[in-house]
Amino acid sequence: MTERITASGVRMTSFWHCFGTERHRADLDTVIGLLRASGTDVLPINTHRLDDDRRRDALEHGFAGVTYDRLAEHVDVSGYVKMVNVNLRTTADEAAHVAKLAVELTGERVIKLEVLTPDLRSSRDAAVVEVARRLLRWEPSLVVLPLLSNDHEAARAAVDAGCPLLRVMGSPIGARAGITDPAAFARTCALPVPVVLDGGIGSTDHVRDAAAAGASGLLVNSVLFDDGRPPVEVMADFRASAEEHFGAGALSELTRG
Predict the structure, then answer these.
(1) pTM (2 d.p.)
(2) Which residues form the Thiazole synthase ThiG domain (predicted)?
């Protein structure tokens, strides 16, 4: 595997992460520590609090009020691929609406898209594909990166809709069960776009499994906080595994002071 992924001309490291969940709230020091430890150049910007008021302080990293603008006061974010993270939305209409609001507010064009089931653990695949089509009709220059369940037909539909990279769940969000159907996952990895394992990662063994199945990269989140150790320590283990199996590159020092 190479250390970079390319989607519609956007080049990214193959190791991605988020900054916690509603149960796992990362403060500013933890957010900066995770960025340093991971070496990623992918920076998701959550939109779960964004509404028609279009307040910039609704754009945050994680769930503890670390806003995009606040992080930029401490970290030079110019070298990152900023992703509008359409998270915690459960209908196609609200996901499409929030994505458009965020694009207009930030000017960013990379969309990390999800439409979840009401329990927030699985993907509503048909709705995700529908939103991807809507967004690309609205603005063809967008780079829409959908989250899908481990379903090959849904993956093919997303590619047909114009998605240049797929984020595929190995198992439900937070399950930590890894890739429960490796054959289906490998079949999707054979499609002509990069595939990132995103969902269900529970150990560094699952990094190895993703690479063996043909994935181009992976995303970790809740496992960083569920391990029992400080999340920055857990991140270091996953980065080492990602570098071993994907050749994930790291940025040089990004934090100012």
Answers:
(1) 0.94
(2) 67-233
Instruction: Tell me which H or E stretch contains 160.
Output: helix 152-161
pLDDT digits (tens, 9 = 90+) for 214-256: 999 999 999 999 988 999 999 999 999 999 999 865 443 333 3
How many domains does one find in the chain? 1
Q: Is the dihedral of CA 238, 244, 247, 252 positive or negative?
A: positive
Residue 31 sits at the vertex; the CA angle it makes with 28 and 35, to the nearest 5 degrees, is: 140
* 147, β-bridge pairs: 167
Q: Does the residue 252 lie in any domain? A: no
Burial 118-153 (b: 16+ CB within 10 A, else e): eebebbbbebbbbbbbbbbeeeeebbbbbbbbbbbe
- Residue with tokens 């399950």, as numbered in its chain: 175
Residue 110 gets which letter from DSSP?
E
Closest CA to 156 of 121, 120, 122, 195: 195
Structural domain harbouring 35:
4-246
Q: Facing residues of 7 across strands? A: 10
Q: What is the CATH number of the domain that holds 101?
A: 3.20.20.70
